[in-house]
Amino acid sequence: MDIYSSIVNTIIKQQTSIIGPIALSQAKMVAGIHFSDEGSADLQGDPKLVLDELVKKYEKLFGKASIEVCKDAVRELIPPVSPDILPDILK
Amino acid sequence: MADLSHNSTKNITSRESNSSSLEEELARVNKEIYERNVELTIHNRTLSILSKIYDIINTALGLQPTAEKLINAIVQELKFQKGFIALIDYKAKILHSVAVSDLNKTHASYLKKYKQPFTKLRIHLKDQNNICVVSTIQKQQRMTNVLYDILTPMVTEEVSEAISEKLHIQTTVLYPIVFGGKALGVLCLCLDKHVGALTRFERETLKELMELVSIAIERAKIYADLKRANKRLKELDLLKDEFVSIASHELRTPMTAIKSYLWMAINKSPQKVEQPLKKYLDISYKSTERLIRLVNDMLTVSRIERGKVEIKHLPFDIAETLQMVYEELKITAQEKHIDFTLEKNKAETYKIVGDSIKLREVFQNLVGNALKFTPENGKITIRILMNKKCVEISVSDTGSGIPKSEQKKLFKKFSKIDYSYSKHSRQPGTGLGLYISKQIVSLHGGDITVQSEADKGSTFTVILPQSKIT
Fold this sequence. Notes:
heterodimer; A: mainly alpha; B: alpha+beta; Beta-Lactamase; Helix Hairpins; elongated; HATPase_C_sf (chain B); phosphoprotein (chain B)
């Protein structure tokens, strides 16, 4: 799994722990995110843009707090993710 | 018509405005619910870790195991690179590592190359270059991006940098462990990121954890101190027993010689011993007898407490033992004009399994006490009762009785009852007789109880279980 897919999956998992299945249904609406039969997300197109789109989707529904949750999800990734590869909204 | 159209447009605008404000309200509520859910999720995760820490506090015993379990739980749960707990040894004036989180094999063998600087961390409290010491002494949270600040003077700056790179340590955060205002040590957590990159959950958990870690360490220290003190007490107790045993043996021989010579001076002197010399010799003889009794009792207590008393389990008739005790002490009872009786069914045998010699000592003691504390013209009765479950032997007297408050002291070592119960006794006891009796009966699986009322007399009952009876 590439780093962006890993970030997206972590964010969806974290959001699901807070708001439940709605986090997944919102992610499914983002163009460029496809889910495998096992429920794992794969990205198509520009991954940085797709990631940006997903965070903004959550922000639109749940406000600024959801961005902090996404940032925290990225911070918990091992090994740490370089801020250079992240969209501005997650920096 | 124009009016109608105007009204219709106005209605639509109003409906749109209402719908928009409703959407705004819904969005606001939605965000609020989300924020509350975030709070709850963070608290939930924090509580889950705290619960694990509580489990460690409640189950781990000893300082080292507690510290090791704590540091591993924190590092694993929060996914940090490494962590260790160092505590102050105030006597040696050093801060030394007591627990280090587990590492993978590669990292562990890498650190071995540098003589395990985390495990063997040992810094003098005067070494202000080491940030662990500074954080502990000043009781302040610290952090550093330079591992050398932590490991100095254990390793060189170059080695620190190499370790830092190998273990992916970017920042180390130090939390002082403080309990009741006293610095106990420091908890160091090594992260692979800057402290600003800690998540809200990590920050909140660490904040909550620190208090618990302090409690856990203090509790473990107290347990370790108690264990040490207990071990020392046991050693001292053993020494005391040995001393009592040796001293008693050494005392008994000369005391017996003194007693024999005093007896000879009183009874076998070529000249008649005149008063007041006879009186002085009599007092000396009785005091010597009492001392020998005390020494013997102390030896018995010492043997009992060291588990050196062996009880023979042989069948015998307890009624015969009581008859012997009765015959032996009947003369003393007659001298005091005491009505002394042994009540038993002559046709019945009272066979039990036990140590007849030791049980005889018990009844000698109980009847001896009754004789000592019963006034002239009083009454003492020994009764035997046997049923399917046990045999009960009671010794009743019409002495002064013992009030309830004093009864608790009776079976304790060197207990002296503070009551006129002893007013009829001319000879003070050693304060060990009832204690020894209780121990001997206990070794037979039985018990001694007392029923007494002030000024009405006492009944001591020995109960021996049927399981020991054939």
